[in-house]
Amino acid sequence: MTQWRHGPKPVIGLVGGIGAGKSTAARLLATFGGAVIDADAIGHDALEQEDVRRAILEQFRDRTNLLKPDGRIDRRALGRVVFENSADRYALQEVVFPYIRERTRSAIAAAQADPSVRFVALDAAVMLEAGWDGVCDKVVFVDAPRDLRRVRVAERSGWTESDLVAREAAQWSEERKKAVADAVVANDGGQYELKRKLENLFRLWGIAVG
After folding, report:
1. What confidence tens digit (pLDDT) does each residue in 60-105 have?
2. Is residue 2 assigned to a domain?
3. Is residue 123 situated within a structural domain?
4. How far lies 182's CA from each of 15, 140, 141, 188, 192, in Å?
5. In contact, 120 and 138? CB cutoff 8 Å
6. Which of 11, 39, 143, 205 is the most exposed place for a label (fewest CB within 10 A)?
7. Does residue 113 form part of some domain?
């Protein structure tokens, strides 16, 4: 058995332009026998933790309307705050990243120990910005034309062009991400085509997919 850097099974990081189809790629990798770890979902869960909630409210105590009527953090309202100001964004990351990092490490360890898992796929939008690519054996950049991505995020999240621009500004440029990635996979066709490209890539890397 090939011994990868981070365990007996490879850890594959998924990054990409916003709306490029990273989550679609992750779902396909799950059908290959991979254990998919959704760091964004872990980030959402972080906001439900009482200690994280208290720290956010203390950090942004001068802001209003960050809470829903039930007392939970309003993610949309918080997002509007942090995407408008880089200092606020970094302050939020300081609060939530430790939780996400530890949960991610635990999930990777559990997947490595599961005999039914063939590989681990880490789906994390800001993996490179946070320096988490160091836990991956390979990093895949999922790519798509910007016009197509703009349509996808409008349909998915109701984002405007300005929303997309603000969120892109909060991440590394596509060129910088591609330069770090071990492979770039274009997602400008249907899911069948994307699946075929991922299968070919994984076979090239010696990773069984079925």
Report:
1. 888 778 999 998 999 988 988 888 788 898 899 999 999 999 999 9
2. no
3. yes
4. 11, 6, 8, 19, 22
5. no
6. 205
7. yes
3-state SS string for 149-169: HHHHHHHHHCCCHHHHHHHHH
Query: What pTM did the predictor assign?
Result: 0.89
Tell me if residue 6 falls in helix, strand or coil. Answer: coil
CATH number of 189's domain: 3.40.50.300
Q: Which among 169, 159, 100 has a CA at the least distance from the CA of 130?
A: 100
pLDDT (mean) for 31-45: 94
Q: How many CB atoms lie within 10 A of CB 208?
A: 10
Nearest to 107 by CA among 122, 90, 92, 85: 122
**Angle (deg, nearest 10), helices 86-113 and 39-46:** 120
C-alpha torsion sign, points 128, 134, 135, 140: positive
Residue with tokens 């509007």: 80
Q: Which residues pair with 15 in a beta bridge?
A: 141
Domain enclosing residue 60, as ranges: 11-204
For the chain, how many structural domains are there in total? Answer: 1
Q: Residue 2: its pLDDT value, please?
A: 57
Instruction: Let me know if residue 210 belongs to a domain.
Output: no
CB-based contacts of 154, cutoff 8 Å, min separation 6: 160
Q: Which two tokens stand for residue 10?
A: 């490879």
